Amino acid sequence: MKYExxxxxxxxxxxxxxxxxxxVIELKALTQPIAPDAAIGRIxxxxxxxxxxxxxxxxxxxxxxxxxxxxxxxxxxxxxYGLCRVCKKPIPLGRLMMLPESDKCVDCA
Length: 109
Known about the structure:
Layout: H1 3-30, H2 42-75, H3 93-98
């Protein structure tokens, strides 16, 4: 992988880390406990509990993505960066730009 491509990817990863960190902060706010004495009605309370559960799952996935992005950034200068960890073939630059946390090619993913 060329130096210029790695620089593009580095910028993309930094941008994605920034966006994902903001998402984590927003999701943490949405996953706060729902007080049992909240006067929002029985059905609304059930919806709020369901939404909290959905947001907790999304928070978990977003935190995992953030971890993968940080790992990608840490390994970007390694010689084997951009190679599929399964088949060892190069991951297309387009895929890495769309999903900078990718460590597998499309076929192996």
